[in-house]
Write a structure and sequence with these properties.
Blueprint (H helix, E strand, L loop, with lengths): L1 E13 L7 E10 L9 E6 L2 E13 L4 H8 L5 E9 L2 E8 L2 H9 L3 E6 L2 H14 L13 H8 L1
Antiparallel strand pairs: 1-2, 1-4, 3-4, 5-6, 5-7
Protein name: DUF3305 domain-containing protein
Pfam families: DUF3305
Amino acid sequence: MEKFPVAVVMECRRLNNPWVDEAWEAVGVVPAFDLADPAPVEIVSEPDRRQWRIGGWAIELFRDEADNYFLNMSSPIPKVFVMWRKEGELALPAAVSASYGEAARWLDSGEQVDGVPMSREIADWVGDFVNTHYKPAPRKKVRRNDPLAQDRGRA
């Protein structure tokens, strides 16, 4: 298991909607090696948009998820997945991952999950892990429909 410390940037946008006042979304995951205080810090305050940086998180990589990291890294835009929950006035991260499979499991269980583009530093780190631990599944021989083979089997 390997860890990469990160902070999550959560954004709240005001909506002009009679049923919903605001929409929350994870909009960034940034390296946080030197972040001393993990408490939420407001970093953007505009009339229709506010953002908070929330530290204290780490992306952890596990060998048994190497296939899912490979799928993520081979996509056009690799992502970090953030599971979050609304707690009081803020939406706070509950977990972060670079695994497609883990994000899918969170979504299947009804959690809020956003995928944010992976920074170059995180992508390099995950890429090194994939290069070291990913082993493609052995290819299986596929039997094609061979009409002669079917006739031989009946005789």
